[in-house]
Write a structure and sequence with these properties.
about 160 residues, mainly alpha, Dna Ligase, domain 1, two-stranded antiparallel ribbon, 5 helices, about 45% helix
Length: about 160
């Protein structure tokens, strides 16, 4: 039997010492073994999930800039484009590119394909303003939002 004496010469119950040592070793590493740590697999899985979230955030930012960054550059603030009745998607692209309106052509073509613009080309006379993004320009051309011509009727 172990006899423990405290600083004021009183006897201490050994069972109580064991409980105190277990308590202290849980919170302070110098009193016993370290706190139970996370397993290696949990760290690997958490690291993988963090990297996956970062890659998804980067891809989301990249797509956001393709869709919503200004991609139309016009010298004088606005320019007019005429799309004939029998125009195809390639003819619309040629007219936009020949006037130097589109800054990033690949981004514009990628979004146009994803928004089904090649099947929905509408003829008309369009005014295109400086600073439009790809989404706004494609929506304007798909919806047929063009200039209304006021023709005076004389009798």
């Amino acid at each position: 039997m172990v006899l423990l004496i405290s600083w004021n010469n009183q006897k201490i119950n050994p069972d109580r010492v064991i409980k105190i040592t277990k308590f202290m070793s849980y919170y302070y590493s110098k009193y016993g073994r370290n706190r139970p740590g996370k397993s290696k697999w949990k760290k690997v899985i958490l690291t993988f999930l963090l990297l996956l979230i970062l890659v998804a955030a980067g891809a989301g930012y990249f797509l956001y800039t393709i869709i919503f960054s200004p991609n139309v550059w016009v010298k004088k603030g606005e320019i007019s484009i005429y799309i004939p009745t029998d125009a195809t998607y390639e003819m619309v692209l040629d007219s936009l590119y020949n006037k130097g309106i589109i800054v990033h052509r690949k981004n514009f073509e990628w979004l146009a394909q994803h928004k089904s613009f090649p099947e929905l080309v509408k003829p008309g006379h369009y005014i295109i303003h400086d600073g439009l993004n790809n989404n706004e320009l494609i929506n304007q051309l798909r919806a047929g939002l063009q200039i209304l011509l006021m023709l005076p009727l004389t009798m």
